[in-house]
Amino acid sequence: MAHSQTAGTGAAPLSRATVLLVDDDPASLRVATVAVATANGEVVAALAPAAAGAGRRADFAVIDIPDPRALALVERFVAAGVTVIATSGAGSVGLAVEAMRRGAVDFVLKPFTPDTFARRLRPRFAERPVPRDAPAPFTPETDAPDATFGGFVGGSGAMRAVYDQIARIAPSKAPVFVTGESGAGKELCAEALHARSPRARGPFVALNCGAIPRELMESEIFGHVRGAFTGAAEDRAGAAEAASGGTLFLDEIGEMELALQAKLLRFLQTGEFRRVGDTRARRADIRIVCATHRDPFAEVAAGRFRQDLFYRLHVLPIRLPPLRERGEDVILLAEAFLARFAAEEGRAFTRFAPEVLERFRAYGWPGNVRELQNVIRRSVVLDDGEAVTLDMLPPELTRTRGAATSAAAEADVEPFHVQERRIIESAIAAFGGNLARAAAALEISPSTIYRKRERWIADGVAA
Ligand SMILES: Nc1ncnc2c1ncn2[C@@H]1O[C@H](COP(=O)(O)OP(=O)(O)OP(=O)(O)O)[C@@H](O)[C@H]1O
Question: What's the pTM?
Answer without folding.
Answer: 0.60
